[in-house]
Write a structure and sequence with these properties.
This protein is an all-alpha fold. About 70% of the residues lie in helices and about 0% in strands. Helix 1 runs antiparallel to helix 2.
């Protein structure tokens, strides 16, 4: 099998995934009827099927064509036993956009409260 055939298979899977994504968008914009939810669910399941197949084929393509697979660095999951105090404020500020937004919102709230008192 040539590499072009593998690429063609990946592109076909991608096109079918995009087709079902477009169908979902189309169903969303149309006036709803009694079958709309079922049609969206069916299209979503097909989207997942084709997208998953495409991603899997991409992941294994290097091994399939006989080339060494690219190194994938997997960060070790932190163990609670290693850090009994949990994740600190600084780590959360770096890792979590939601946490960072909540801290910023609290700061703004405190500033507004001080302005009201003045």
């Amino acid at each position: 099998m040539t590499e072009e055939l593998l690429k063609a298979a990946i592109l076909r899977l991608r096109s079918r995934a995009v087709e079902h994504y477009g169908l979902i968008k189309l169903l969303y914009t149309r006036p709803a009827d009694e079958d709309t939810v079922d049609k969206i669910c069916a299209a979503a399941l097909e989207l997942v099927k084709y997208e998953g197949a495409m991603l899997t084929l991409q992941q294994y393509s290097a091994d399939i064509v006989g080339m060494p697979a690219p190194e994938q660095s997997v960060a070790p999951e932190p163990s609670l036993q290693e850090d009994p105090q949990g994740i600190g404020h600084e780590d959360l500020m770096e890792r979590s956009a939601t946490y960072k937004k909540s801290v910023e919102a609290e700061k703004k709230k405190a500033i507004r409260a001080r302005k009201k008192k003045s």
